Model the fold of this input.
Amino acid sequence: MTTALRLLADQQQAQDVAQNVFLRAYTHFEMLSQSASAGGWLKTVTRNECLNHLTRHRKRWRLFSDYPQTEHDGPELPVEAVLDQTWLDGMDDARREAHVERALAALPQAFRVPLVLFYFEDLAYAEIAQQLQCSLAKVKTDIHRGRLLLAQQLGPKARELYT
Amino acid sequence: MMTQHDHGDAQLIARVERVLRAQPLQKAPPDLIEKVYQQLALNAVRPWWQRSYATWPAATRAVFVLTSLTAARIVYWVLASPDRYGVSSHFMSQRPSWLWWDSAAQGLERGHTLLHALGAALPTAWWYVGAATLIGFYIVCVLCGALVYRSMVRSTATYEGCLL
Done:
C-alpha cells in the first residue's frame, strides 16, 4: 500500500491497485504460500501495477491533465540556497512524516516516480531506466531535480502553507 | 578535486537520503481487506461465462472456438459468394415478407435516395461548412469536457494538500 501511495500520490488509485494485487495474490496463493520470496513478489507486482496504471492513465487523460508537461516550470533554487534552509526543525514525528509524504506527493510525476523507485524500492539507476524505459542519463537528471524540488517543498516557505 | 558545487550536491543527497529513509511505512486503510474479501466473494459466485475466457471449462472453450469459426465461415460464404451454391437466391425468394430486413432495406434505400438528392441539390461549399461546423462542435465538446475535468474532477482526485 505504501509503495502504491508513494508512486501514484492518490489515495483512491493506490487502494484500487492494492486491491488488485491482493486479488492476484489470492489466485497465486498455492505458489506464494510455499515461497520464501512472497513479500518480494507482492512488492514487484505492486510496483508494476502502479507503473502500468500511470502509463494507462497518462495515455487516457493526456488531453485533460498536465501530463505532457513533464518539465517542472516553477522556480528552481540552486543547491546552496536549498541547503541554507532548515527543513523539518521543530516538528514532531507525526507532523514531520506527514509533511514529507505531502512534499513527495506534490512533486511532478516525472520526478516523483524515479525518486520513489530509488529511495523506497531500492532500485539502481539502471533498473529504474529499464522500468521507465528511458535513458540512464535522464533517470539521473530526474532524480537530481527531484531531490532539489523535494528540498524546496520541505523548506520553510512550503511549510508555511500548511501551518 | 571536489568543488563547492559538488560538495553542495553531496550534502543535498545525504540530507534527502536521511529524510526519506526515515519515513515509516504507511498503514493501509482498515476497510481494504474487507473490500478484497467482498470482491473475492463476488468473484466466487460469478457464473463461468462472466469470468475471463482462460478460466472457462476446456470443453466449453473448444465448443466456443468451433462455433465462432463455423459462424465466421457461414458469414463469409454468404457475403463473399452468395450465388455460388444458389443459397442467396433461394433464401431471398423463400423469405417471408414480414421479416425485419424488408423494412430495414426500405429505410436504407430511402436514406440513400435522400442523401443522393441532397448531395445533388446542395452546393459543395455547404458540405465544407457543414463539416467544419461538425468539427468545430466536436472540438468545443472536448474542450468543455477538459475544462470540467480540470476544474471539478481533477481538483478532488489529486493528493490532499498538493502544493503544486
Notes: Residues 156-164 of chain B have pLDDT under 50 and may be disordered.
